[in-house]
Structure formats: C-alpha cells, structure tokens
Amino acid sequence: MHTQNVHLKNYSAGEEIFNSVSHGTGAGLSAAAIPLLVVHAVRSAPAGLTPLYVVSFAVFGVSLFILYTVSTLYHALTSYEAKRVFRIFDHSSIYLLIAGSYTPFCLAALHGALGWTLAGIIWGLSIAGIVLYCVLGNKLRAVSTATYIVLGWIIVFAFRPLSHAVPHISLVYMIAGGIAYTAGCPFYALKKIKWMHSVFHLFMLAGSTLHFLSVYTMIP
Length: 220
What we know:
The protein is mostly helical. Helix content is 80%, strand content 0%. Helix 1 runs antiparallel to helix 2, helix 3 packs antiparallel against helix 4 (112-136) and helix 7 packs antiparallel against helix 8.
C-alpha cells in the first residue's frame, strides 16, 4: 500500500463534521440493518435456499457497515498520514460495497450458473480494483470513478433473468438505488467546490437505503 500516491482534498472543518456525522449515521443504520436482513432471510427465504439468502444478505449488510465506518473514520481523523491511509481504505470499501450489493441478487435471486458466474466476475473485478488503487492511488482517480459506475451497472446484462427472479418492487428499488449512486458521481467529481462532497454523501445514503429496501423486499 503506497500512501505517497495518495493526495488529500482539504475540506473545511464544517464539511468534515458533516461528512463524519452523515456517514456515521449510515454506519449506525447499517449495523441495525444486518440483523434485520439475516432474520428476514432465516424466516422467509425459499425452502432449500435459506443458507444462500442468509449468507448473501449478511455480506451485503456487512459491506454497507464497512463502507460507512471507514468513511466516517477517514473524515473524522485529523492526522494527515492517518487520513492518507484511510483514504485508501475509503476508496477500497466502495469496490467492496459494489460487490457486496451484487451478492444477494447473484447468489440468492439468480443462483445457478448465471448467478455464480456474475458474482465471480464482480468480485474478481472489485478485488482487482482494490489492489490497483492500493498500488497506484490517485493515479487511478478518473479510472476508479468510471470503474465504479461500470461495475455498478453490469447487472443490465442479466436484467431479463433478474426481472423474473425478484418481485417488481425489489427491482424498482434496485434501479432507483443505482440511479441515486450514479447521480452522486458528478458531485464527487466536483469535490473541490465547497460542500459538493457532502452532497455526494447524501446521494450515497439514498442509494444505500434504496438498495437495502431492494434486498429486503427480494423475499416476498
């Protein structure tokens, strides 16, 4: 992990307080979401698929918790060197969340060869993205943002089978969450303008909430 390739944006104290509190709230909600998802899977998953639902729902919840916890710490820290390290963790956790968000749809809803293949591709590309960012840091900034968007929408290639595998409301929440995440990207790109990164945080929270609802309603 080469922190010398990581350069930080100097946010104001007010921005960092907002960023820490907003994603700290996300971390708290994510922690509460994990048992809700797991219990729902245990009680309501289709017969024979309960283990897949429980594990994949838990992976999704944990990936949410990791992202929001790491982001909160990154924005709350005041040590420059510590922030450089947590910036790497912060960006890496986005790849983790993308893969974690796909997991219930791939392993539980689709399962079978298609689901496992798609999960393998998403997790493989996400792990590759984490490794590359750890090595190259800001040199991959533009590529990383584009990669987040592309990875997030790979599901379109399996849209037809997925639309038959999950309830309509779950599909609507999933698409809406993807739109919310994508709509936040321009604000992330404009983070040199004051408060734009904070707006990006709100879109992240909206996208995560919608995807939680999508996963929860996956089981009728």
